Amino acid sequence: MLYSITIVLIAIICVVLIIVILLQSGQGGGLSGGMAGNVGGGAGNMVGARRTADFLSKSTSVLGGTFLVLCLLANFLIDKDPQEGSVIQRSSGFEQPAPPNLQLPQDDATTLPAPAPAPAEQNGGSDE
């Protein structure tokens, strides 16, 4: 449940971060230089453009930091079932090790007998 909420927050922050980055100016354009710069004209306009640029820059930093923290938090919030392996392990036939608290029966009937010794070679045939 908490993992799902974290993923939704990450998705919302991603969309807002994309919008904020696209609003920033690259080389004198964007919201801080283009649209806000053409309204009114004069020196007062430069202060407004700078404030917009500072706001967008700070909001990018805050959103980026929040995104990173939520991604790390989501990693720890993933529900992990110790009895269940990954999809690859289940499909390849990889056996999970037994949990440490599980005691397997140890009886002598299940042990395999020792293999018989190999027969000695006979020198009756051609010896090349």
Automatic annotation (TrEMBL):
Subcellular location: Cell membrane
One biological process term in Gene Ontology: protein secretion
Domain of life: Bacteria
Keyword hit for Disulfide bond: no
Annotated InterPro entries: SecG
GO MF terms held by the record: protein-transporting ATPase activity
TM spans (from-to): 7-25, 60-78
GO cellular component: plasma membrane
Signal peptide stretch: none
Topology in the lipid bilayer: Multi-pass membrane protein
Record has Transmembrane as a keyword: yes
Keywords associated with the record: Cell membrane, Membrane, Protein transport, Translocation, Transmembrane, Transmembrane helix, Transport
Annotated region (Disordered), positions in chain: 87-128
Reported function: Involved in protein export. Participates in an early event of protein translocation.
Family: Belongs to the SecG family.
Protein name (database record): Protein-export membrane protein SecG
Provenance organism: Cyclonatronum proteinivorum
Upper lineage: Bacteria, Pseudomonadati, Balneolota, Balneolia, Balneolales
